[in-house]
Amino acid sequence: MLGALCAAPASAASPGRGPVPAPPGLKATEVSFKGSGGLTLHGTVLARPEKGAPRPGVVLVTGSGSGVPRDHLLTEAVEFARRGLAVLIYDKRSEGYTDFHRDYSVLAGDALGGLRALRAQPGVDPGKVGMWGLSEGGWVVPLAASRSPEVAFAIVVGGNAMPPIRQQNWNEVSDLRRVGVSGSLIDRGKPALARFAGDAGLFAEAYFDAQDVLERVRQPLLGVWGGYDLQTPPGDNPPLFAKALRKGGNTHYTFRFFPDADHAAHRTPDGGITRGPELAPGYADLVGTWVHDVTSGKLPEADTAAPPHQEHASTEVPPLPWWESLWVHLGAAVLFLVAFTAYPLVALARRLRGRRVRPATRWARLLAGAGFVAAFGPFFYLFYLVAGSQPDPGPVLGGRPLPWLILQALAVATVVAAIGTAVEWRRAAAAVARTERVRLGLLVAAGVVFVPWAVHWGVLMP
Fold first, then answer.
1. Is 294 in contact with 220 (CB distance < 8 Å)?
2. 236: helix, coil or strand?
3. Strand, coil or helix: what is 393?
4. 3-class secondary structure for 141-154?
5. CA torsion sign, 404 to 410 to 415 to 416?
6. Residue 128 φ/ψ region, left for φ over 0, alpha for ψ in the -120 to 50 degree band, beta for the rest
7. Which residues pair with 224 in a beta bridge?
8. How many helices (H) and strands (E) would you count in the chain?
9. What does each C-alpha distance from 112 to 138, 151, 235 come to in angstroms?
10. Are 204 and 272 in contact (CB under 8 A)?
11. What is the pLDDT of residue 107?
């Protein structure tokens, strides 16, 4: 999850970004324009140099990342320009875009600023300029189109008609499935962390309502997905796009699928893990032909093919209800921290002071030790899995990573120890001092709260 998000903010014109030399057979024109909040953005327009009738244009909107340079989409820009389009690529903003904060409305405003700049270019027909968006851009471009009739068409590649939190959870779960993981780690633990991050504000735009936006898109839309898309569910999304567009009364869409392509419709030599430098065969031709057709009045009518095979379906990841909210989690975490550490720390303090220490029961010792690890371990292990670009769950036994199996064993031990501690606490209630009863009672209370906590995080589930 967080591993898929990108860098901290910097200036809008970071070093290393700048003009793109004109590729062979094309003309490159440098432009500057105002994005959201008056931020100045810089880009390059690529087009064939010959004179003639004004040509259609397209603004390319990149995927996630802070300050992504314009040449990130140079391959697409060159191929589209060679097919008769004027293509704008621009340096993505880094101001106001971080790991934990981004605003698709702001990014849509940036894209609309680019659209206005491209519409003003000599040789471009201002009534035939649209947008193309990759991945995150697949949320941004429909939003921009829904806000402005100046957008003549919309193209999304590896796009999502689902909330980002659902897409990201599918992405991360799919990575784990590919290394043999199954069971509660991916069924309960991963969604729990995603929902916690969304509730805590650590997942930017987690519940962005893509369906509502698509219902307001009136322009013709081209959707492109690769059969080896490992980041976006290529089978789930096309029907969701169609449903939302049709609900809004828009049937002018085309969906196409490239079986040997990755998330960005590039060729991939290894099933989507590595992105090749070349576009999928026929993809650039499709874009060029489709744009020329729709800007000439030849609108598609619900033109789609069968989606590619998707091995595992994505699942909805709803917001946390109040009883599982951030504040309830924090309250439970404080209880665990106090209860599971107070028992041994109080005993240690008494020994250091030379005071007589009542012998600790084996159940209380087990509850304090196992409970602490079982309560906080799942969160940190799950966070570790999403912090890197590729998950390394450790040795997998029967579909369960070894660290997860250890946490599950500790969770069971915690429940058993809580029952044993409760029995001893009840038996010794009249025989021990009040402070000792409080200490044991706190342990028992933490053990009781631990049960729904462990079910929520999946360590008490198979």
1. yes
2. coil
3. coil
4. HHHHHHHCCCCCCE
5. positive
6. alpha
7. 157, 256
8. 13, 11
9. 14, 8, 30
10. no
11. 98
Q: How far apart are CA 140 and CA 9, in angstroms?
A: 19
Other CB atoms within 10 Å distance of the CB of residue 80: 28
pLDDT for position 184: 97
Superfamily in which the 2-163+208-304 domain is placed by CATH: Alpha/Beta hydrolase fold, catalytic domain (3.40.50.1820)
User: Residue 451: is it exposed, middle or buried by C-beta count within 10 angstroms (0-12/13-18/19+)?
Assistant: middle
* Per-residue confidence (pLDDT) for residue 10, from 0 to 100: 31
Higher pLDDT residue, 387 or 233? 233
The pLDDT tens digits for 280-312 are 999 999 999 999 999 999 999 999 988 888 989
- Tokens 């405003």 belong to residue: 109
| Distance in angstroms (rounded) separating the CA atoms of residues 28 and 265 | 24
Whose structure tokens read 């992105």? 275
CB 237 within 8 A of CB 211: no
Per the document, the length of the chain is 462
Contact (CB, 8 A) for 64 and 265: no
pLDDT at res. 99: 79
Task: Judge whether 342 and 292 are in contact, CB under 8 Å.
Answer: no
Kindly state the tokens that stand for 295: 């800007």
Beta strands in 1-82 (DSSP E): 27-34, 40-47, 55-61
DSSP-assigned beta bridge partners for residue 223: 156, 255
What are 261's two structure tokens?
Answer: 């392509």
pLDDT digits (tens, 9 = 90+) for 22-66: 999 999 999 999 999 999 999 999 999 988 899 999 999 999 999
Question: The tokens of 360 are what?
Answer: 């600790």
How far is it, in rounded angstroms, from Cα 384 to Cα 388? 7
Nearest to 254 by CA among 237, 238, 266: 238
* Residue with the two structure tokens 């941004």: 140
Closest CA to 194 of 102, 319, 313, 329: 319
pLDDT tens readout for residues 103-148: 999 999 999 999 999 999 999 999 999 999 999 999 999 999 999 9
Question: E strand or H helix at 10, and its extent?
Answer: none
CB 457 within 8 A of CB 351: no
Residue ranges covered by each domain of the chain: 2-163+208-304, 322-457
CB 343 within 8 A of CB 223: no
On whether the CB atoms of residues 244 and 161 are closer than 8 A, the answer is yes
**Rounded to a whole number, what is the largest CA-CA distance in the chain?**
99
- For residues 36 and 112, give the distance between their C-alpha atoms in angstroms, rounded to a whole number: 9
User: Which letter does DSSP use for residue 421 in this model?
Assistant: H
∠ Cα 24 29 33 (to 5°): 145
**Cα–Cα distance between 313 and 320 in angstroms, integer?**
21
In the prediction, which pLDDT does 417 show? 94
